[in-house]
Amino acid sequence: MNETPKLRATKDYQLFSVSKHNREINPSHLRKLKPSMEEYGWIPAFPMLVRRTAKGLEILDGQHRFSVARELGLAVWFVECDNGFNIPRINGSQVPWRIRDYAESFCKCGKG
Fold first, then answer.
1. pLDDT at 93
2. CA distance 70 to 85
3. Phi and psi based region of residue 107 (left: phi greater than 0; alpha: psi -120 to 50; beta: remaining)
4. Potential cystine with 5: which of 70, 77, 79, 98 (Cβ 3.0-4.6 Å)?
5. Dihedral sign, CA of 46, 95, 51, 69?
6. How far is the C-alpha of 102 from the C-alpha of 65, rounded, in Å?
7. What is the Cα–Cα distance from 70 to 98, expressed in whole angstroms?
8. What is the number of H-type helices and E-type strands within the chain?
């Protein structure tokens, strides 16, 4: 990629399609994600990763956030990048929070 990726936002959801290489949309994940996006909107610090194809912009990462944003009518934040990375490898390192993680976080913030 020759240019520095630029953070962009749009409500034109028709520009996007989900990559066939990504996971299927998980309804349980959508239900868990929706309340935070209703409260905070889409946080631009966590944009979708997309790549340009002949058909438009293909979502490489962020299809769940995209689905919730579309449902809520929020702008989607994205960065266009090349396709030189492995989607499962990038997402495979994510570790969900455990109850202990939540408890420790609340205690550190003086809420425990």
1. 67
2. 26
3. alpha
4. 79
5. negative
6. 22
7. 29
8. 4, 5
User: What does the alpha-carbon distance between residue 23 and residue 13 come to, in Å, rounded to a whole number?
Assistant: 19
d(CA 78, CA 82): 13
What count of other Cβ atoms lies within 10 Å of the Cβ of residue 9?
Answer: 12
d(CA 112, CA 59): 39
Tokens representing 18 are 């989900």
Helix (H, G, I), strand (E, B) or coil at 88: helix
Taking the model in full, what pTM does it have?
A: 0.80
